[in-house]
Each structure stands twice: as structure tokens, then as C-alpha cells.
# Entry
Amino acid sequence: MTMRTLLPLCLLIAISPLCLAEDNSAALPAEPAGMKLIFNGKDLSDWDGDKRLWSVKDGVIHGETTSDAVAAGNTFLIWTGGQTGDFDLRLSFRCNATNNSGIQYRSSRVTEGVKNDWVLKGYQHELRNEKGFPNVSGFIYDERGTRKRICLVGEKAAWEPKTGKQVVATLIDEASFQKLFKIDDWNEVAIIAKGNRIQHYMNGQLILDFTDNDPKLALSSGNLGLQLHAGKPMWCEFKDVRIAELK
# Structure
């Protein structure tokens, strides 16, 4: 074998591990040490919300609004067992398509000028039973804030103080998301937040990577909550809710 033949082979061997690492970077990491269940599957211990709307059914958290049981504004089932600073949160959800839900994190509780006793403000992982961009599960919404849809599914982006959102890469396109997401079924969500960087995963794949570089708007710690949205009657369910604090 000549040196001319050997050189490409050596380069291939040297480069392959790097390529594999890059290919696997979109995969959800293994669960970290210290992951703990924060829903016991029996009752809403360590959770606070409107008892008309939230319950446990068949071992899962069930939130539902009806024409008789109406949400007075967006309302949340709030975890009282801790805060979300740097964390790794994992759960499964399903909901119907008449409205939308969300997972609130690093959020503050609002008690003035609101219509119910369970209101949160801050980062929200949007939950929807839809497949068409941009109205899909996974984008970051600024609940009760000014930035609204901070970062959309598929975006690797940063928010800068002077220029706002700057998208630097595409992580997943609409066609790929439609294959990934399960309509009318359980979907697995992971949210990993370290410092000012937030990553959202859906069914094991990275769908959003956001860095908040605005010192006045970025959130570093706060409450965790599950949303029932005001408006049309809806239901949402959650199970296998677990979290680890990241050191």
C-alpha cells in the first residue's frame, strides 16, 4: 500500500471520532446523578394549584378546564418543593388541540393585578398538540413578559441587549419535527438550563438551544409550574416528572 493510499485512511481514522461527537451532540444526554421524582403518582403533594382544575387521574397529573370550570386567566400548578436554577427537568405530556399549555421555569409568582392565585411570570416551554411550524411544542415563550416568543423550535439563537434575538444555526426543520412529534400521544420533554444557556429536547432530540445574554432580562432562578391556558376548554396531562439540580 502506498503513502498516497495511507494518507486519506489515516485522516479518516483521525477525523471520525470528531464527526461522531458532532452527530451525537443533538441527542439527549443520560440523566444526571441526583435526579428525583417530584410527582408521586398518587396525589398533588408538593404542588399548589386550583383544585377545581387540577387532579390526579390514573396515576398522572390531569389539568382540565370546561365550560363550567373556567380558568380565570392563565393558571398554573406550581411545584412547592424547590426552585429551578441550573437544572435538568424531564417529563412526559399529552394534551388536546383546542388550546395550549406550557411548562414554566425560572419564574416568579405574581400576586398583584391577576385574576387567580396561581400566576407565574418567566420562561415557558410551550406545549401544543400541533405539528405545523411555528405553533408547535417546545418554543420558549416569555409569559407575562415583553419578548413573547423568545426562541422558536429549530433555532440555535442568542438574545443580545442591543439587537434582540440572533439566530446562528438551524437544529431541526418542520418535516423532521413532524416525524419526531406524536399527535394525540405522550411526548417526552427535557429542559436543561445551565447559567444563561437553555436547551429544549423533544423525544430525545435537541430542538432548541438558546443563550440569554441580556443581563436585565435573563432569568437565573425561580418557580416551576404547569399551565392551563385561559380560553377554550382544554386538558393536559403530565407523568414521570423528575428533576436534578446541576452543580
Summary: The longest strand covers residues 234-245. The CA atoms of residues 59 and 90 lie 17 Å apart.
